[in-house]
């Protein structure tokens, strides 16, 4: 079965086309600047030359049509007919409390996605636009919604409730939802497979460390706690997001700096984290390069590492132990300096790292802990698109 995976943003989209016979990507690409007369489409067919065009693309339906046009193009195409696509999997950021698994899209599902627009105003509207664009261009082909929040619906109430008046949960569903669920689900399953152990026997701390970052406690295959909250702002210090802070800071700063709600929201989401502390930006490679001589960069790195380590410790306590710690996503997979700093300060857990292996870069799952280490420490490249494709295949088959 050929499955098209779509990740739709407000002015962009990314895609991968899978042949699920052997789970290979036969084409991938993106469309940027949707809504402009100089939109950019980049199409990468496996085994053929990349295509890059600049053209007018004013809305998502046109963007999808353009992508499909290149999928069947005589020179850059990988399909003889667009109807070879038998299902489409959509990344949907927020499923609220409604969805604990991926689902086949119907009118009720679309209404539910719309119903939580206020919980993910930058993402869910765009995700729904992508679904409706595909329905328009490929009528009758099954669409599956795969939710970032679904994996975390196994969290117990003591973990997802906030200690605020309970009526706010009842009226507005204010609670912890968590994100990056597709990634955490994929890498935890991959780790169990690599170790040759049933996931039901493992306590895993999964560290998805990228520009956006979250840590999840996975007890026997189920998410029992996660660092992001009602929104992706809570938790770790990130590239541009503040993560955890004293909530009283918000009204205090608003009063002192005469900021509006939108301005303080922008400050916390776009101008904080590594960017706010270092003054250089959100790229960990720049931070690591400059921290040797620059105090701001060094402080940013130290704060970043310290907060990750604190969450790991908290989740070891939450699960009463840990068997596996996973590092994944852009920074987690590529920064041996960060992994070294974190694990050197977790020796009380009996962790021992082979620093030579830690420095090796690879796109494969690898163990960086030694044979003497009491906890397995793995680097697991994430693949959210493949997880979406797998879920899409599973849901389509179960609905036949």
UniProtKB/TrEMBL annotation:
One of its GO terms (molecular function) is ATP binding. Its cofactor is Mg(2+); Mn(2+). Its main location: cytoplasm. It holds the Pfam family Acetate_kinase. One of its GO terms (cellular component) is cytoplasm. It is found in: Cytoplasm. It catalyses: acetate + ATP = acetyl phosphate + ADP. Pathway: Metabolic intermediate biosynthesis; acetyl-CoA biosynthesis; acetyl-CoA from acetate: step 1/2. This is Acetate kinase. It comes from Vulcanibacillus modesticaldus. The gene is ackA.
């Amino acid at each position: 079965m050929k499955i098209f995976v779509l990740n739709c943003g407000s002015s962009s989209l990314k895609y991968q086309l899978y042949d699920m016979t052997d789970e290979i990507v036969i084409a991938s690409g993106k469309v940027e600047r949707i809504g402009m007369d100089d939109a950019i489409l980049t199409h990468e067919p496996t085994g053929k030359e990349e295509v890059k065009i600049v053209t007018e693309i004013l809305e998502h339906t046109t963007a999808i049509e353009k992508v499909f046009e290149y999928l069947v193009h005589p020179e850059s195409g990988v399909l003889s007919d667009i109807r070879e696509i038998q299902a489409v999997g959509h990344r949907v950021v927020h499923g609220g409390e409604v969805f604990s698994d991926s689902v086949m899209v119907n009118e009720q599902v679309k209404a539910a996605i719309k119903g939580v627009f206020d919980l993910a105003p930058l993402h869910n509207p765009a995700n729904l636009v992508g679904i409706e664009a595909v329905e328009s261009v490929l009528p009758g082909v099954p669409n599956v919604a795969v939710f970032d929040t679904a994996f975390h619906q196994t969290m117990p109430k003591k973990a997802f409730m906030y200690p605020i008046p309970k009526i706010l949960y009842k009226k507005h569903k204010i609670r912890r939802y968590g994100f990056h669920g597709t990634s955490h689900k994929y890498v935890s399953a991959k780790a169990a497979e690599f170790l040759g152990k049933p996931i039901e026997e493992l306590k895993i701390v999964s560290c998805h460390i990228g520009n956006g970052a979250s840590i999840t406690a996975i007890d026997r295959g189920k998410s029992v706690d996660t660092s992001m909250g009602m929104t992706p702002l809570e938790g770790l210090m990130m590239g541009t997001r503040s993560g955890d802070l004293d909530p009283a800071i918000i009204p205090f700063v608003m009063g002192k700096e005469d900021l509006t709600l939108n301005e303080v929201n922008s400050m916390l989401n776009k101008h904080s984290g590594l960017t706010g502390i270092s003054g250089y930006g959100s790229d960990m490679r720049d931070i690591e390069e400059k921290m040797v001589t620059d105090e701001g960069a060094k402080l940013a790195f130290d704060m970043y590492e310290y907060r990750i380590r604190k969450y790991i410790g908290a989740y070891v306590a939450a699960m009463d132990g840990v068997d596996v710690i996973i590092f994944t996503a852009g920074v987690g997979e590529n920064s041996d300096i960060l992994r070294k700093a974190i694990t050197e300060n977790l020796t009380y857990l009996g962790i021992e790292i082979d620093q030579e292996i830690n420095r090796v870069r690879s796109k494969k799952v690898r163990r960086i802990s030694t044979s003497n280490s009491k906890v397995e420490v793995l680097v697991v490249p994430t693949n959210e698109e493949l997880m979406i494709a797998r879920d899409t295949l599973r849901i389509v088959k179960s609905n036949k």
